[in-house]
Structures are given as structure tokens and as C-alpha cells.
Amino acid sequence: MRQAFRQPGFARLYAGLTASMFGDSVMLVVLSMWVKTVTGSNAKAGLTFFFMVIPALFAPLLGVWIDRLKRKPLLVWGHVASGVGVLPLTLVHGEGQVWIIWAVAMMYGASFVILPAALNGLLKELVPEEMLVDANSSLQTTKESFRLFGPLVGALLFTWLGGWAVAVLDAASFGVAALVIATITVREAAPEPEESHFWHQMTAGLRHLARDKVLEHTLIGFALCILVFGFSESVIYALLDGYDKPATWVAAIVTAQGVGAIGGGLSSSSLVRRIGEVAGCVAGLAVAALSILVMAAAQQFWLVLAAAAVMGAAMPLMMVAFMTLLQRRTPQAIMGRVSAAVEVVMGVPQAISLALGSLLVVILSYRTILAIMGVVTLVASAYIVVTLRGQIADDVRRPRGAGTPGPPPELAKSSTAVGGGP
């Protein structure tokens, strides 16, 4: 991972994103915890994350706009807007203002579409292709490691001062990120205007994903997994109820995930280089599935925490592998639209999952829901193995350090033409 930091600008980008990632780690758990505390409802707490994924449904429109702008200014002003957007949380004083929490959750969802898309494009400007896995690994490791103390800080602030204090801290973290990223020196060519029909521009990302079979089948596997992963936002509180733990103990589970995430993040770069991005996604899904099944069968809470740590190790491996795969196989001209298209492919099943999870937690036991999650995640892992076994075999046989090549030249040219870029 050290090689990425030798690239001009990446260290500052990392420093800025570290600030905003800390703010996210403090705030995101508090949003649902806040709703659970003021309403007493597990279902309403889970719905908080449902509102967060709604903007993903409009991601193609955002993608067209993203590809018309330079990446660095978009990343800077996106952080500024996000900081301002969380401040209405200071007005929440009881159940009557829950709608404000949900509105801020939607704002967060919009930032989760715009900021990662801008980041994907900026990384391709700052870092050579062979170092993308190192850059992604360093960012993901840091993000996941904040689970060690970010949720605890959020829970303590929420308990001690109230949610308003968490909102102010989060807004400040976005402000710091914007200031630091603004100091990066990078030469970005202005995106060339496109003359094709707007519908053609808007669907360029989806068409690229459909033409690249590696991305297509990997995304289908991820979508199957996400179709049940959203259950966790509601079931986690039912699990805590089963062990007679208060809602604030969700921070302990997230922190346990952070412990595992450090190990998973630090090893993800070398593992992905060894086995390839697709196999990295498969391995991450399989480990996550097994950890969920252990949670479903656990009789002691310490075992739940241990399984959460194992699942935490799987998450950075999945994300590093997939983000590197996406960046390598996507032309810069349509990176925003492809990133936005991924949000749609993942956001739709996530929205269904979150809504369904809020219903299932009322009629099924948390053990049954966790068992369903584990089995479906295993099926998702198996699907990728079956459909991309040839790609996996090629990646594993490739000499270590050679990296996974991008799409064939004809696909790259076709994708660029579809996007209408240079």
C-alpha cells in the first residue's frame, strides 16, 4: 500500500477522506439508534437505512451530471454540501422530528452516490492503474478500522450530549475533508460536451456493465447478496433484544467488525493481487456468509461478537476487489455513469431488502432471518464462481504482481463511444 502514497496528491486525498470517513463512522450508527431511542421501534430504525438508499434509484441522472464536471471540484463541493446537509439534525428533539432524521438519511444517500463516483474518477487521475488496488486497500482499511472507535464515540456523544453533538462533529469532518482535498494539485482536462441524445448518455453506464460480462456477473452476485444484507439493519436490534442488550450495544457489534476489518483491509491488497479481483469478491462473500450463519446459531453473545469480527474482515476484501475491478474495466469518460449505474444495481435490491427486513423482523425470529441471509449470500458467491470460473482460473494462474488486465480493446473503445467521451 505504501507505493500509492508516493504518488503526488494521493496522501492529501487520503488525509481529507480520512476526516470525512471518521465523521461517517460516528454518525451512521447514530441515525438508526436515534430513531430506535425516540420511537422504540426496530422496524422504524431499519427504515432509516431504507431512506438512505432511495437516492440510488436516481443515480443514472446524477451520473450524467457527474461526468460533465471535473472530479476534484465535485469532490470538494460535495463534501461542503454534505456538511451543511447534516446540520438540520440539531433540530431533532423527539419522535415528532423523526422525519428530519429520515430526510438527512436521504441526503446521506445522495452523497453516497456522488462522492464515490467523483473519487473513482479522481483516483484514475492520481494513481497509475497498477497501484489502484493499493489505493483502494489503504482507503478501505482506514474506513473499516474506524469501526473500532467511531461508533463508540457516536454512542457516547449521543448518550452524553445528544444527537445534535454528533451532527456538529460530522459536519465539521466534512468541512475538514473539503479544505484538505481543495489543496490537491491535479491537472484535469475539462470533460468534452456530448452531442448524443440524453437517454443515450444516461444509460451509458448500464450498457457498459451489460457488455462487460465480468462486471455484469459480479454485480448480479452482489445484488443477490444485497437482497438480504439489508435485513441486518432491523435484525441487529432484534438480536440485541434477544440477549437483553440496549440499543447502544449496536456500537459493540460494529466495533467488533472494525477489529476484523483491520486485518482484512491490510491483507486485501496482497490477496487480490494473488488471486484476482473476481476471486477476491467470491472469497469475501463466502466468509461473510459463514459468519452470518454462526451468528444465527450462537448461544452466547461473545460468539456473536467473534462472528462480527470475521464478517468485518470479509467486507474490505469484497470492496477492494470490486472497486479495483470496476476502475480497471471502465473508461474514464463514463466513470461517473458507471459508478452511478452500480448504485442502481445495488441500490434497488438494497431498498427492497431494507423494507422487507423491517417487515420480517416483526414476524420471524432473528435467528431465522440471519439463516436466510447466510444461505442467500452463499448462493451469491456460488453464482459468481459458476459464471466466471474461466476468469477466476486465468487470474489465479497469472504471475503474482502482474495484475488483472482491463477490458479488451474493442470493449474499451465501444464503452467510450457509448459514453460519447474522448
What is this structure, in a nutshell?
The chain has 422 residues and is mostly helical. It is built from 20 helices and no strands. It has one domain: Growth Hormone, Chain: A, CATH 1.20.1250.
What features would you describe in this structure?
By secondary structure, this protein is mostly helical. The chain has a single domain, classed as Growth Hormone, Chain: A, CATH 1.20.1250.20. The protein contains 20 helices and no strands. It has helices spanning 2-5, 10-39, 42-53, 59-66, 71-86, 98-126, 132-145, 150-160, 163-181, 198-202, 204-211, 213-229, 232-242, 250-275, 277-297, 301-328, 335-363, 366-387, 389-397, 409-419. The radius of gyration is 20 Å and the shape is globular. It starts with a helix and ends with a helix. The model is unreliable at 408-422 (pLDDT under 50).
